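Please, structure for the following, as tokens.
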Amino acid sequence: MNQNILAPRGTQDLFGKRAYRWHEIKKIIRNIMDLYGLSEIITPTFEYTELFERSVGEETDVVQKEMYTFLDKGGRSITLRPEGTAGAVRACIQNNLLQGNLPLKLFYFANCFRYEKPQAGRFRELNQFGVEVFGASGAEIEVDMISMLMRIFAEFKITRGLTLAINSIGCKVCRKSYVDALNEYFAKHKESYCSTCQTRMNKNLLRVLDCKQEKCTALNETAPKITEYLCPDCKKEFIRLQNLLQLNGIAFKIDNKLVRGLDYYNRTVFEFIARTPDGNNLAVLGGGRYDDLVQSLGGSQTPAFGFGMGLERLLMLLEEQNYEFSTPKSCDVFIVNASKGNPDAETLAWQLLADLRKQNIASELDVMQRSVKAQFKYADKINANFCIVIGEDECKTKMLTLKNMKNSEEKQMVYEEVLNYLCQQQQ
């Protein structure tokens, strides 16, 4: 096959059982969203580039290296959505959603696009489940949403090896003192850091703490800790968060190097990390508070909190942990036409097919001109529960042969009896 028409690197096709599992995951999550009072928001796949530059941050890796940006036919700079928060905030401001009852609690399923190196659980087209809550400024909403996530993980039986990491990155007031302390520390050790971190020291200082290279990780162990520089208000809220988590029986660890990679975060940031069967750590989701983003994009000052979860990573984790997905619905009834070319048999087969489907009984008939033997073989391959045989005798006597494909038992019934019997089997 021509390489230029294969699926682009970093994308994937979902079909069969995996597509079914994908929708089952979304269904389970939607049910929990209803339980916690969140409503869905759907935003465009692309936005004006300026939205992401102003919200995510011009110096972040996302904006500098990873966005899919192009000029449309009108010469306007357009970017495929790299994350879900910016679009959700823009939609809330543009549609005056923040003028109603608060808090406003929203969720979304969004396909996002980032040009980065594909690896396990990471794609260039990724699907994100996200939550954004507007109007609540305290730790209460943070704990409520974290407890909601715990409910999701429990529903998927992801409990062992799951760690909640939290941190506070302060506000504009206390972060300035912390950045000054970091600058002083990094200046002394700059040459020992990797080249990427050296660049970040000039553009996105806090991201140096997030580096996973061994030499940088070791140096960061002795770097100043943000929690030592928090102002009284930020320190109070961080302690409040910890107390509420303990009150709700939610275990956590404080990770002073957890900063998140987007500029709009302040105060609380968090991640959930799962242990994979091969012993590796997998960041399943992350998020935090972003109290200044709404105002920076033209709205009124509105506290906000949210997170994003990669569905590809969640599906990969569930499959690795052998989560028992429900079985895709199989065909209930396959109609075997044993009298090809007989217009009466054909009419009866199509009428039966329509009547079965009216009763919400999943049904099929042969459209491939197969022999009777081949039709039974096909019915077995698609796991049909029953076959109904229609031939010349059935057309004359109006008696249909119903075969149970699981135990090979056969019954002779009139048309209406067959429908009633199959309806009872559905109950």
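Residues 16-35 form the longest helix (20 residues). The two ends are 48 Å apart (CA to CA).
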